[in-house]
Amino acid sequence: MYTVILMSSRGNSVRQHAISKVQILFFVFTISTLFLVGISGIGYGLFQKFHKAGSEQRLQANLENFEQLAQAKLQVELELAGVNEEMKDIRQMAEKIQQALGILGQGGGGSSASGVPEGMEGSADTQQENTSATGGTSDDTREKQEVLKPSLLKHEILSLYDYVSEHEKKLDGHPSILPVKLQQENGEKYGYWYSSGFGWRTHPLTKKRGFHQGLDIKTRSGVPVIAAADGKVVKIERSGYLGKIIEIDHEGDEFKTLYAHLKDYADGLKVGQKVTRYQIIGYVGNTGRSTGAHLHYGVYDIEKERWVNPIKYILDQQPTFSP
Q1: Cα–Cα nearest to 216, from 277, 306, 291, 322
Q2: Is the CB of residue 192 less than 8 Å from the CB of residue 318?
Q3: N or C end of the chain, less CB within 10 A?
Q4: Closest listed residue to residue 131, CA positions, set 139, 87, 154
Q5: Nearest to 101 by CA among 146, 15, 27, 165
Q6: What is the pTM of this model?
Q7: pLDDT tens for residues 198-251?
Q8: Bridge partners of 273?
């Protein structure tokens, strides 16, 4: 038991109160509880304040991210629209090329009857289901979607590419270049001229008039001789009149080319070997009945069974008139 004495400041009043130990403990507990509650309240208020500030910051960050995504989406849509326009232009150009080459199918376009390339039937079914689910689409809209569909455009371009590639193989096998390599690896470039053309002439050695079945290309001895087109070597031999010769059969057995008066053959060249245009096969020389270093170049039309003028099969060079 404890006694608490309360005295007036004037000293004329004194009061005593008996307080038990339990009451003191209860008072202390109450004060402590109130203090803790106050502290908790302040802490909770601060927590709510900071949490609200963090939420606002996150919300602001989300809004900024959303705005960036919206701008990115808009940019993608603009780029996609540009791609679609370019695809339409490409398709129009492809159709014009097909028309020019005479390979455009009846009714226009190079696509299949269903308008869907092979292997894309599943995608077409999916598109049809999607169309039904959205209430249907007009024929014009479907046609526009097919025009802009990359797989369809690729299918149409591939047919054109295959056609051109096939004809390119034929062109590669068609003699069309000057059969001497004038530009050397060291940068030096040799000159040349036609010393004797195709047709009737007086032979420089026999002085007799005869038909010259090739084209004499005058240039320096040792200048590389190149294949005029892709083909297969069918003859490598030495003739008393033409000296060292090479004969090549070309694509589809339409032409043969002859290279004569050679100084020598390219290393490793043999009969039956496949050669390509611009490949070195020999070197300009003066073998056989010749008055000087030159290449006798002949073009034989197998279908017509006769030698033809090689000038018609040289499309890339003009004589420089100096060796």
Answers
A1: 291
A2: no
A3: N
A4: 139
A5: 165
A6: 0.55
A7: 999 887 777 889 999 999 999 999 999 999 999 999 999 998 899 999 999 997
A8: none
